[in-house]
Amino acid sequence: MRCNRSTQRARVGAVRTRPSAAQRVPGGGEEMTLGERLKGFVGERKQAALAAEWLERWSERKEARKGKGWTLDTVTSSFSRCFNDQPEGVRFFFGDRARAVLLFEVLAVPPEERDELLVLADLAMKTGAARPAQLVVDLTAWTGDRDLSDALFLAVEKQILEPHRKLLPVVLVMTEEQYRWLPRTFDDFGDDVRKERVKECERARERVMALAEDQGLVLAPYPLPVFERWVATSFRGRELRFEPADALAVFAERGELPRLPAVEHDLASLGGIEPASEPLPEDPLALRRLMVDLCVEERVSAMKQSAAVRLGWAHKLGITVTSTERERIEAEISALDARLEIDAEPGDEAALEGLLARARRRPVETTAMRVGDVIHILNPTAQSLEVESHPRITVHRIDVPVPALVRLLNELDTWTEDDLLDDPLLEHVVERLDPRGEERLAMLHARAQVMVSRTTRLRGGERVDDWKTPLGALLAEDPPEAMLRLHGVDNQDDYNRQKENARRFLLRKQGGWANDENTDKRLRHAVPLDDLIVSREDQVLGCKWSNEDKVTERKGVQQIVLESDPIRARDPAHWLDLLECSAACGGHSLDGFAIVQRFGGSVLGNSPSWENEVTNLGTVFWREADRELALAWLSLRRSLGGESIRLRDGSMLALLGGGIFAEFTVRQHSSRMKRSGTRASLLLPVYYETAKLRSGEWALRWHPQPLTIPIVSHLAETTSRYDASTHIGPSLPRAIRLEGHGIVADVTFRYSPLFTSPGQGLAPSIAAAAAAASATNASATDDDDRRRRD
Is 265 exposed, middle or buried (0-12, 13-18, 19+ CB in 10 A)? Predict the structure, then answer.
């Protein structure tokens, strides 16, 4: 039969035990008291120093309980009493397992000797007053019939009393009903198992608090004010369950359980959070785990509960809960937002870039936008330096530049017709105004609007009085390779020709922006403002503007919106509105339809696509151009030494011979484009037509006209029943443009019979005979038709 430990009493005096091998001294006694054993670990150190170290470390690891605190004198005297085996001193250190463990640490007691010292302390305390309980177990939550009570008490014995004898004495708090079913085997534990009965379960918690006082471990299904002294306990399936699961083993080793994790960032300190009333978990084990989780930021971040719910739980549990990094950032940004002169609107990187791009185009009022965890403030006016310098604040101050349209129009308004002919697609001027491409989309949109609306104000070129000197220097050189000045002409008979379509057809050179796939093709392609001068290396494309959409949809961002009215097209504010409605230029505004409602149908939306047709002139054509240019060049060079006369408009007539004159218009011109040498181009009209293919589809066809045109010298007509006429004369270039030596000269050719030599007297007779022959042929044709009808 198990012996009752309570009967083991020492004789009057201190309890002695055999010393360990390390503590035995030669010639000394075989038995040593607890105090003597403890003194053996002091060494050369002073008790006062040990007492100070113990008190300092205890103050660091324990919270003050019930207002109790110890002075150094109290602890020093307790050391002296304990070393002298006085019960008060032994109870001071060994009545609480945590104090005993700290004493062992201060004295550097080896772990293998600590259990024996605890037994000595236990026996020493039994010689005096009743030993304080190490465990207080509240069983009242599981009151029921005998079967439930038997299972409960069996679990207490097997899970608490037998495996953890070092933690005795233990107090079992139970109801009167439970006490009736208490097994008699519990009497074998004697004073190590104390029974505390309560009449009502509601009084159990109050009694547990009184029994536990300021030491010992409490096993209960409800939390304790001192978290590290509470073991959450439940009884299910005939088994006691604890949280932490190893709580009793840890307490036996360390004298206390781990405290709640320290909270560095108190959720309540963020302010502005109204605690929510959310019920706590009913399971005590889950409740204790929740209390730990609420103090650990990583675990809180994984929770789905809001800050308000967690703060409400903290108030109910009387603990401090941590905030998450995200909550601290949001609180920080919210506090900053409250100090701004304007509320920050939420946005993303694309919205911010759109805002900044808009500010670079036009004046924008102070705006605040939150992107991620940063508030961007645009052009603040009354913001403190402290706020502006905050790491979560980014300030953008943007000086409003001159709008791209204004810059482009200011440049074009200084142009002459010759400047426009140098750059009819406005490609080079855009490159000059925006060499780094920083405003490229805005500049291309402005260019497209200028070309659609034809809103140019060109100046006339300055006439050259002494035209022979620079022209003579130019013509003294050998002629360069001929170039062609392409002039697109609508086919008057084409069934598709309508007044509103008059500018849908054009010619352009392939290359440059035409192949820039990074820019919307509707911005790259536009109707030239003048003829195109091309060389034989250029591949010429005929283009048709296949459709012309209006802004008709009330919803959706238009790809490109342009103003076609030449007056409104020069309004920069109106242009900026259109630019911000054009998605191809980075616009996001949905006001395209509203703009149309305001200004009518002159606004073009979703500017249309293009159809291309390659026009190949061929080697023979270019050889003919070189030949015609050379003949004209030589003739013009010789004319400079002959007679000439100035007309009222400033142009000059110079006699070439045989009644043919060259009409010069010579103007000063320094090309804005970098160019070396001279250029000479011949005018070449190009007609278009829409032809129906065998497949039934319609295709665009371009027809270059002859380089030369007859110069009428003589005309003859018949006035018989069949009128006929004919003319004769030389075929000469339609027009020639010469550039170089700081001038540009436009040359056309004329004929006058006043300067015809006598050898040309047969020309009228030849013309009359040709007209008569035409009339005869017409009469014969009528006769043939009449005979076929008969």
Answer: middle
- pLDDT, one tens digit per residue, over 51-76 is 899 988 888 865 544 435 688 888 88
38 touches 141 (CB < 8 A): no
Which alpha helices (DSSP H) does 362-467 contain, by range?
A: 385-388, 404-412, 417-422, 427-433, 440-453
CA–chain centroid gap for 149, Å, is: 66
State the alpha helices, DSSP H only, in 63-184.
72-83, 87-94, 97-107, 111-126, 146-156, 176-180
Instruction: Compute CA distances 44 → 39, 56, 75, 761, whole Å.
Output: 10, 20, 19, 149
DSSP 617-634: --HHHHHHHHHHHHHHHH
Is the peptide bond preceding residue 244 cis, with omega within 30 degrees of 0? yes
Whether the ω angle into residue 169 lies within 30 degrees of 0, i.e. cis, is yes
Tokens representing residue 784 in the block:
């043939």
SS3 (DSSP) at 668: strand
DSSP-based three-state secondary structure for 701: strand
The DSSP 8-state label assigned to residue 200 in this structure reads S
Decide: 212 and 173 in contact? Cβ < 8 Å.
no
CA atoms of 671 and 152, how far apart (whole Å): 107
Give the strand pairing for 393-396 and 483-489. Answer: unpaired
Tally of CA atoms within 13 A in the half-sphere of 541 that contains its CB = 17
Residue 669 pLDDT grade (very low, low, confident, very high; cuts 50, 70, 90): confident
**Confidence category of residue 594, pLDDT binned at 50, 70, 90:** low
Cα–Cα distance between 360 and 635 in angstroms, integer? 57
Write the CB contacts of 373 (distance below 8 Å, at least 6 apart in sequence).
Answer: 329, 333, 392
Tokens representing 176 are 């009167």
* Cβ proximity of 458 and 417 under 8 Å: yes
The per-residue DSSP string of 28-92 comes to --S-EEHHHHHHTTTTT--HHHHHHHHHHHHHHH---BTTB---HHHHHHHHHHHHTT-HHHHHH
Q: What is the pLDDT of residues 117-160, one digit of tens each?
A: 888 887 777 655 456 778 999 999 998 888 999 999 999 999 99
- The H-assigned helical ranges of 454-559 are 468-475, 521-524
Under 8 Å between Cβ of 140 and 202: no
Neighbours of 676 (CB within 10 A): 5
B/e letters for 617-635, b = 16+ CB within 10 Å, e = fewer, are: beeeebebbbebbeebbeb
Selected residue with higher pLDDT from 13 and 201: 201
Cβ–Cβ under 8 Å, residues 581 and 606 = no
Distance (Å, rounded) from C-alpha 354 to C-alpha 349?
9
What pTM does this model have? 0.52
Q: Using CA atoms, how far apart are residues 634 and 622, in angstroms rounded to an integer?
A: 18
d(CA 6, CA 190): 6
Largest CA distance in the chain: 170
Terminal Cα-to-Cα distance of the chain (whole angstroms): 155
Q: What is the dihedral of CA 504, 506, 508, 510, to 10 degrees?
A: 60
- Give the DSSP per-residue string, 347-359: E-HHHHHHHHHHH
Q: What are phi and psi of 10, to 5 degrees?
A: -80, 155
Tell me the torsion sign for CA atoms 491, 497, 498, 504: negative
Per the CB < 8 A criterion, the answer to whether 563 and 575 are in contact is yes
The distance of Cα 218 from the centroid of its chain, to the nearest Å, equals 55
| Six-digit token string for 389 | 């310098």
> Residue 535, by phi and psi: left (phi above 0), alpha (psi -120 to 50) or beta?
beta
Backbone angles phi, psi at 263, to 5 degrees: -100, 115
Look-up: residue for tokens 């608490």?
160
| 196 pLDDT more than 80 | yes
Tens digits of residue pLDDT in 280-295: 999 999 999 999 999 9
